[in-house]
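Human: I would love a firmer grasp of how sequence relates to backbone shape in proteins. Could you go through the record with me and say what the backbone is doing? Here is the record:
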Amino acid sequence: MIKQVIRLMQPGVFLPQFSTEDWPENAALVRPTWMSICAADQRYFQGSRPEQVLRSKLPMALIHEAVGEILYDPTDSYPRGAKVALVPGVPSDTSAVTLREPSGVYQSTHSTSTRKKRAENYREGNLFYSSSCDGFAQEFLSLPLSQLVKIEGNDEHIYAFAELVSVCIHAVQRWLRIVQGNKRGKVGVWGDGPFGYILVLVLRHAVPDVELIVFGKHDDKLHFFSFADDTINIYSKSKCRVGHAFECVGGRGSSHAIDDIIDRIYPMGCITLLGVSESPPPIRTRMILEKGLLLHGCSRSVYSDFSAAVDLISRPAFQGHLKKMIVHEATIRDARDLEKAFLADDAVPFKSLLRWMI
């Protein structure tokens, strides 16, 4: 098959290219319909990743947050026109992928098989769209059923956030297994951007009895966290302390966020690191040792997390909060439209949605 792929050739420059693709047996043909721009995509577009990384990755199609519609499914699992969320992660051992697993956010059981499925996310050799291979910015794609999650309803565009929601679900589930019910005190989330916003939403639904505090530096953004118990500007004189913490800042701000967390967290607390930083942040190991803190990292998600994310997004209250994040929409018909959308997205406080018309 010959298809059009919009690739980032160098920072700030998208160009259309035509690519041939084999159609694997039992793969469905999918046309992307809605996409969302992630901070990771922006780092490539802005050229803020290290030069050696840019040279090794580009040219590459971006976007790993997307939904699409089925053009043809040889397995008859999906009818033509069915709406699906697209899963960007491809485990190195695809035979280990379990396609359907009940929504794990609301389960209290953590079986050995579930832990093995979670471990897929951290296996060496995994592929990830718009990182280790072309992303979803393509005319159409042939995808196995293990990368498709059916969605229902008329608001398909909001499911473009399923990837980000799934990552937050993955992180919350790992945290719950680590603390094993010991959710003592307040739980703090550092980061007032889209990641922090969705993580607090997931925490609120998964552990509604926990007191959630959001720490950020933008009062206009913190105003949106109406579902949190409290919001605190990190430059205020608040002495608020927490039992556990989630870091969702990343970038240059991750160092300050981690430092603030170490100051505010009680001994024996758990710190979940989610923000990506190009420059290694200095961490005060002396205080980590003195307080007996546990640091663990989470990234990306697996199929079962996507299933749980789609279920969560279908809930009216959750979906209503997600819609508040949309501050920019654009229709993409060519590479120039995509460039304009990325430039506009860089100036918005939350999320952009792209209607894909390639």
Remarks:
- The longest strand covers residues 2-10.
- The longest helix spans residues 162-179.
- DSSP finds eleven helices and 18 strands in the chain.
